[in-house]
Amino acid sequence: MSALVLFSGGQDSTTCLFWALANDAFDRVEAVAFRYGQRHAVEIAQARTIADAAGVPLTVLDLSGLLSGSALLADEAADTSDPHALAPDLPASFVPGRNALFLTAAASLGFTRGITDLVGGMCEADYSGYPDCRLDFIQSQARTLSLALDADVTIHTPLMSLTKAETWKLAADLGTVAGQNVLATVREHSHTDYHGDRTTRHAWGYGNLDNPASVLRAKGYAEAVANGWIPDDDGSGA
Q: For the chain, N or C: smaller number of CB within 10 Å?
């Protein structure tokens, strides 16, 4: 059985990639990334670096122009920390319809390759206000895709009930997979920062604490260290 991982190159999807590789249920793992006009497009380069190191085939689908209305898009001027202009209860970084589009595109790609098991890093506990990360949506989308393709599509979300600190712990618990130290790979190569900034290396990885994604990542890292789940790092990259 094969799995197709929705792979952004971020902390969550990187952890999911290695979770899939370590899962005995899958004898083959592929990955798909999406170029959709995001301002943090450096994540695609990081996805390529990680996938190549792990020996995972990566397909990049260009969905540019299909999504709008988010501070994450390069042609939007809104601050990612602001409320969403069209839905004040949501953050400006919410991309309307993103996960619905991504899962549909991934299911279509998977179908052509005989893959009906999708893996995504959606997380309900730390989902930053994104309604398309909720378990209800994922279950509904799996049912819809199964009907659309007349196939039993399964969407695996190993992080769904985890906090960000517990996601760091999972990376550590996975140990070495496909020749890669998962925790070190997440720390050094995954990219979460909404501004695409990889100039400053912290113990929790690259980015700055001027956007919610890096704040959440850093906070989870500190909690995981405090709980003794992962070793601290001095930020040197050693």
A: C
Q: What span, in angstroms and rounded, lies between the C-alpha atoms of 160 and 97? A: 19
- Take residue 74 and report the two structure tokens written for it: 């390069």
Q: Cβ contacts of residue 48 below 8 Å, gap of 6+?
A: 9, 33, 58, 60
Residue 195, class by beta-carbon neighbours within 10 Å (0-12 exposed, 13-18 middle, 19+ buried)? middle
**Based on the number of CB atoms within 10 Å of its own CB, is 216 exposed (0-12), middle (13-18) or buried (19 or more)?**
middle
β-bridge mates for residue 38, sequence order: 73
pLDDT for 71-122, tens place per residue? 666 555 556 556 655 566 666 666 677 889 999 999 999 999 999 999 999 9
Q: Which two tokens stand for residue 191?
A: 């990219």
Beta-sheet pairing, 180-181 with 176-177: antiparallel
Answer for the pair 16, 119: CB distance below 8 angstroms, yes or no: yes
pTM exceeding 0.70: yes
The 3-state DSSP class for residue 38 equals strand
Residues 6+ apart with CB under 8 A from 26: 1, 2, 3, 20, 117
Take residue 58 and report the two structure tokens written for it.
Answer: 């990566």
Question: In the beta sheet, which residues pair with residue 201?
Answer: 206
